[in-house]
Amino acid sequence: MTSWFAPGRINLIGEHTDYNDGFVLPFALAVGCTATVAEAPSDWSVRSAQEPDPVVVRRSGLADAGDVPEWTRYVLGTLWLLTDRGVDVPPMEITVDSDVPTGAGLSSSAALVCSVVRAVDDHLGLGLDDDAVFALTRDVENDAVGAPTGGMDQLVSLRGEAGHVLLCDMRSHDTRPVPLDLAGRGLAVLVADTRAPHKHSDGEYGARRRGCEEAARILGVPALRDVSGADLADALGLLEEDELRRYVRHVVTEDERVLAVARLLDEGRLPDIGQALTASHASMRDDFRITVPEVDTAVDALLSAGALGARMTGGGFGGCVIGLLPEGDVEGAGDAVRRAFADAGFGEPSLFTATAEAGARRV
Ligand code: GLA
Predict the structure, then answer these.
(1) For position 87, what pLDDT does the model report?
(2) Is 153 noted as a catalytic residue in this protein?
(3) pLDDT at position 200, please?
(4) Which range of residues forms the domain containing residue 161?
(5) Does residue 348 lie in a domain region?
(6) What parts of the chain have a pLDDT lower than 50?
(7) Mutate to test the pocket of ligand 1, among 29, 149, 209, 258 (most ligand atoms within 8 A of CB)
(8) How many domains does the chain have?
């Protein structure tokens, strides 16, 4: 039997930059998923502590995969893709158990995929290197599940380090831990899970991605990462559609904010990053247009209650908001978010603080 744990994540800053080959600055959470692989007499079976029924399928590649519940595609996807790549994957039973809230934008799916890939690689002694493991986790989500995501979530779930955010170059996939010394500066990251339903989020996510790729094509660059801040005005002048102009402005300025925040953290200036966090939120709200009233309300409440900066984190259209706050203001800020939600007639949000923890590990 082989067990691996992989965590969920929060993105400190850098939203919708990953599939534009840009930069992101996420950190791994304490919550995550544990996947256990054991030998089985025949077939592949998948069980989850959070689902009532196990699923048993015959061994196959992706093309011959039958209709299975969506959550199992994140698990079986690993086995299908390995089979397609010529690995003779034996019968096995995979059990998963996760405490990452689902639908909150905290990457419960990355925790699931990364724990499974690590456990299967280890159990079978495949010896995949770090890059191959990451590539497989991304392929499972893109090809076996069909979610056109950019890879940030898997990268930080695999490589996160305690007490650090991970500066990720999403073109080279080089990563560098950058200190996030919250306790040393008397600060905390307060998370408000708005519990706003993620309606149409998949379609909207794909539409943003296609828009960014279309803009890169018109501008004649491989990806929007190749448009610098200095080139932005010229680039905007070449685009006729307002929607594409807004997308480009978000991505180019967001990449700059990520690098600016990483620099400030390297210099030990954690309290100074707040402005960039709040500017990132404004860019997601006004230019990229991926926020909803619940997340905007939570950000405003956090800022009024003393947050140094606040922003939505993750893909958008609901999910979680983070605020960087002096430790002493955390409780009052939580109350302020709850009050603002009650006044607006929104459902009760869930509030908790988050620290940066280690990435995937054998357990
Ligand atoms: C989701 C995706 C990531 C990334 C973010 C937005 O979390 O899985 O790849 O694109 O949205 O930054």
Answers:
(1) 98
(2) yes
(3) 55
(4) 2-177
(5) no
(6) none
(7) 149
(8) 1
